[in-house]
Each structure stands twice: as structure tokens, then as C-alpha cells.
Amino acid sequence: MSLVSNRKSSQVKFWATGLFFASMILFIVSKVFENSHPIWPWLQALSEASMVGALADWFAVTALFRHPLGIPIPHTAIIPNSQERISQALSRFVQENFLDPESLAPKLSSAKLAVRLTDLLVTPAIAKTVARQLKDFMTSALGSFNDQEISNFIAKTISAIAKEIKLAPLLAEFLSSLGESDKDGKFFDELLKLGEKLLTRHNQIVGGLIHKELPWYVPAVVRDYLYKQVFDGIANTIIEMRADKNHILRKQLWHLFNQAVVELRNSEEWELRLQTLLEEAAQKQSLLDYLANVQFSLLTKTQQDSSGLIIENFANIIIVLANAVSENKLILDKLDQALQQIALRAVRDYGTKASSFIEETMSSWDSKVLSEKIESEVGRDLQFIRINGTIVGGLVGLILHATLVLIENLS
Asked: What dihedral angle (degrees, nearest 10) is formed by the CA atoms of 212, 214, 218, 224?
């Protein structure tokens, strides 16, 4: 509880106690002067009933948290003596009302989580806050490792992965999936088209390689002729392969591809080669140094982002994505369903553990600490109960005195 709330609670407690002492003083004065003026009996009845009301409510409020005046009166110090029952009841209440999938599902469905989320994220201030948190997380993650730690971690992890999984069959399944998904040859056509573009764009490099491989005494005219023949031959072959699905070279490449998949799936030799290659790559200092340099560069840039460029770009990406999702009802509905499923799965898997955690935490508290925590949260309202008891008691005393006076006058 905040210091301001504690101060307010203390102020109300002061007034509640002050009213009791004021009633006691008034009772003493009215008792002394009860025969000097007709008003004093009325004030005596008021103050007497006020004291009774104040004391009764003080006892009731105090009995919740401790023994009044330290006297172990039965059925007092209710909260400390009922700590286990309270923790079980609170845990059960949270479980049944907040962590029950059946009762939570309709609430999540009507909550429109995706709409609320996108509405929040399109707000520039919210997006910037999320972006700042992402940047801080990235900086913290990058800074939590030094270069040597990262190098050792990568080397050990890659080596462990290489030993624990079958790389060749995994690669075979991946390549097989690529092949099955490109039965019409469109992906292969795109690769051929890309090869044709690269060949045309970098024909001078190809020519340079051909010239370099020929002996020095071959005339330039012959070199150029050979280059043209090789270049045109490769280019024409690519064009023919694109145009003819049954081209012999295309079929041969497809056969080699399928043969490679079979060998990867069944060959122990390939498995050994891939494992060795992966382990050697993990141990190469050049690769580890490169990764360490990347980590250091990213960390430096995030730490020195004084202009806020990273946060601004992150925020813009968040806003664009949120707008795109909010404008697409199909995606919005799918996101809403996904968020519901995530929440329900989390409740289903961890709801019981969360309620048990609440019960265990509350049960482990010192009973005095538990009483103080509860009293600090509701103390101000409890002190108003004492004030109300003092005032209401006084009014009841006046009514009773008025009733007695009326009965006496009638008789």
C-alpha cells in the first residue's frame, strides 16, 4: 500500500479514536451537570450510546486482525487464526471465477481481444512504448553474453545438435518436400530464369574466367570465339530447358535430385559427412569471431541509439502491422481465435498451478504479515465503520432517551 494511502488511513483512525474520547468527555461532563439543565440528560444519553457504539465497532474491527488488548478472547484474531482457510478460499475463488476454461471461454469470445490489441497498437504512444520495451529486451539479451561466452555456447550447442539429430534424413525430407511441392516445375523455371538473368548481367565475368583458363598463346580472336560459343551454348540450353518440360538435361537434373534425396535418407556416409561438416563449422574461429562481431555491433548500435531511430522504426512497424490486421477481417478473426486458444491453453495447463501458488504463498506468510497486508488494504474503510458506529450509536441513544421521556410524560 502506498505511503499516501497509509497516511489517509491513519488520519481516519485518528478521527475515529477522537470521536470516542470526545463522547467519553461529553458523557463525564453531562453526568456532572445532569441536574443543572434539561439538555444534559439528552447529551448524556447521546454520549453514552456513542461510547457503546464506538467500543462495539472497535472491538469488531480489532477482532478481525488481533486479540483486543492482547486478551485471547474466543473468536477474535479471526484472520490470523483462519489463514489456511482464507488462502484456500481465495485460491478456490480465483480458480472457479478466473481460471476455469469453461467459464472463461465465453468471456474471451465476447472480449474481442484482437480488436482491443490492434486498437492499442495503432496508437503511436502505445506503439512507441512497446517498441521501447522490445529495444530494451534486445539490448539486455545482447549484453547478457560476452564474446567468449557466445562462442563457447554456439560451439557446444551445434556440436550437441549434430550428435543428437539425424541431419541427412532431415535434409532429405526437406528436399523431398521441395520436390513434391514443385511437381509442375514452376519453381525450377524460376531458378532457370534467375540463372539466365545472372548469366546475362555478369557475362563479362564469365568471359574473364574463360580467357583466364586458356593458354596465353591462344589468339584473342579465338578466345572471343570460344567465349561466345560457350556463353551462347549455356544461354540457349537454359532457354530450351525452360521451354521444354521434357528436356533431357532437365530430366537428368531431376533424376540427380531424387537420387540425392534417396542417398541422404539411407546413407550413413552422408550422415557422417554432414555431422563432421557441422562440427567443424562450429569450431572454426573465423565463424565464431564473425558471430561475436555481429553481437558486439548490434549491442553497440542499440546502446548508442540516441536519436531513437530503432524505437521509431520498431513503432512504425508495429503500427503498420496493427493497421493491416485491423483492416483485414479474416486475419483479425483468426488472430482473435489464436489469442483465445493461447489464453485457454494457458489456463488449462497452468490454471491449477496458479491457484495452488496463491494458496501456498498466502499459507507461507506469517499470520501477522497477512493481517497487516489485509488491514492496510481495507483499514481506511474499517475506521469509517468505527466512526459510523459512534454516530449511529449516539443517534440511537437519543431516540431511546426521547422514547423514555415520551413514555414518562404520557404516564
From this structure: -70
The rounded distance, in Å, linking the Cα atoms of 212 and 192 is: 26
On the CB side of 294, CA atoms within 13 Å amount to 8
Instruction: Report CA 396 to chain centroid distance, whole Å.
Output: 55
Q: For helices 167-181 and 268-283, what crossing angle results, to 10°?
A: 110
Roughly how many angstroms between the first and final C-alpha of the chain, as a whole number? Answer: 58
- Alpha-carbon distance of 94 to 356, in angstroms, equals 10
* Cell numbers standing for residue 256: 540427380
Pairwise CA distance, residues 137 & 115, whole Å: 26
Cα 195 to Cα 297: distance, rounded to the nearest angstrom: 34
Q: Which of 76, 96, 92 is nearest to 84 (CA)?
A: 92
Q: Sign (positive/negative) of CA torsion 354, 356, 359, 365? A: negative
CA distance 370 to 63: 14
Q: Which tens digit of pLDDT belongs to each residue from 167-199? A: 778 888 888 887 777 777 777 788 888 887 877
- 276 to 198, 265, 325, 350: CA distances (angstroms): 33, 17, 45, 42
Which amino acid type is present at position 3?
L
Q: Which residue has the cell 561466345?
A: 228
In this prediction, the residues of the chain whose per-residue pLDDT falls under 50 are 1-2
pTM above 0.70, yes or no: no
